[in-house]
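JOB MANIFEST
job_type = single_chain_structure
chain_count = 1
residues = 435
[input]
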Amino acid sequence: MLLYSKVRPLFAIAAMARVGGGVQNLQALTSTPHDLKLLSNDAFAVLIHPALPRHSVRIKKSDFCDSTVTAYTGYIDIEARHLFFYFFESRSEPDEDDVIFWTNGGPGGSSSSGLLMELGPCNIVNSSSTEHNPYGWNDKANIFFIDQPIGVGFSYADYGEMVSTTEEAAVDIAAFVAIFFEHFRKFTGKSFHMAGESFGGRYLPLFAAAILDQNSRLIEYGIPPVNLTSVMIGNGLTNYLGMLQSYYDMKCTPASLPPVESISACVRMKQALPRCYKTMKEACFDVLDSIGCEASLAFCESELGYVPAGLNPYDLSKKCEGTLMDTLCYPITRDIVAYLNTPDIRALLGTDPTPENYSSVNFELNGRFMSHLDHIGVRCPPLREWNVDGAVAGLTRSAGPLTFATIYGAGHMVPHDMPKESLELVNRWIAQEPL
C-alpha cells in the first residue's frame, strides 16, 4: 500500500454547457469561492480554476435521496469528458465533519450502486422509491459518490473519447478534488478520506498518489493542499496473482465457509495452481506480454476462478438471484437502473441527455481496464478480535499506518450485508479511534 507520512490507509475486507433533465440555466462562470447554500436547485454553477485550465465543475442542489441533509449533484467536465457525481452533507455537523470520497469498482461499476444499495443516505425500495438508510456513511461525514471512469453510470464523453487506464482516471479525480476544496472553503483543510471496494484496490492508491503529487502544484499557486488523511479499501483487488491462488482455499477448505466444490473439482484446482502461478507471473508481472497474459488469465480463471453453478460469486453463502450479467445476483440492481432512468429522477438530478439510458455496469470498459494489473504485498502482526456493541464483529490487525479488518458474515459488498458494522468501522476510523 502507499505509505505516506500524512496518509494512513485502511483495508476493510469482508470475511466472509449542456444541461438536460429540466435544468435549463447556468449560473455565471466564476473562480471565486462559493457558499454551498447559495447554489440553486434549478441551475448549475460552473467552477473553474487557473491552476487546472482543462477542468471545470458543474454543481447544483438536489432534493435527492435524503431529505434530512442538503444534497448536490453535478459533473466534472474535462473538455469533452463528463464525470457525474453526488454529494451529501453530514447528518451530524457538516461544517465540521470530515469528507469521504466513494467509488465502486468493476472496473465499470457505477457508484450509484454503492449509493442506493450499500452505504448511501437512502436505500432503493423498488423501481419508483427509496427509503432512509440509518446506516448511511454520511452519519458523521460529508460524502461523494462518483461515476468513474468516463463511460460509467451517468458519466460520458463526446467525440468517442474514452479512458482506458487508472492512471488516466486519476488525473481527472485529483483535479475535481482540488477544484471542490478550493471553491467551498468550509471544507478546506478538512480531513479527506478516499474509499471504495473491489477494483477500488487498483483505483484508490493511484488516485491518492495523484492528489498528493498535485498538492505541490497547488501550493505553488497559493492554494491550500488537499488534506488527504486516509485511504479505505473494501475487499479490494490488490494482488491478482495471490488472490487467484486463494480461490482454492475459499472453495475447497473451511477457510470461511464449508467447502462448496466437489472433491474432484478441488483436486483439479490444486493441480492447476502451480502452472497458473508460473504462467501468470511470467506473462503479467515479470513483464507485461499482453497476448501471453490474456492466455494465462483465461486459463487461470477457467481452472480456478469459476463459481459453482447457482452460487453468488460475491457471497458464496448465498444463491445467485437472477443471472450475473443481468442482476449481479442482486435483483435490486434492476430497480436501481429503472429508478435512475425515470424522467422525473433524471430531472431531479439534472443529468445530461447523454447517456440516453443509465446502466449500472459498463462491461466494455471493464474489458479495457482488466489488461492493466496492479499488485501489492502487505505484512501485518497477528489478528485480534474487534467488537460492536459488545459482540465480536470480526478480526483486525495493524502495522504502522496500515490497518486490516474483517467483518464476519459479510460478502463482497460489505455495507450491503453488514451495514451497522461497516458504519461503526468507518466512524471509528475517521475519528481515529481504535477498533
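[summary]
Residues 124 and 130 are 4 Å apart (CA to CA).
Residues 1-33, 376-380 have pLDDT under 50 and may be disordered.
exit_status = 0
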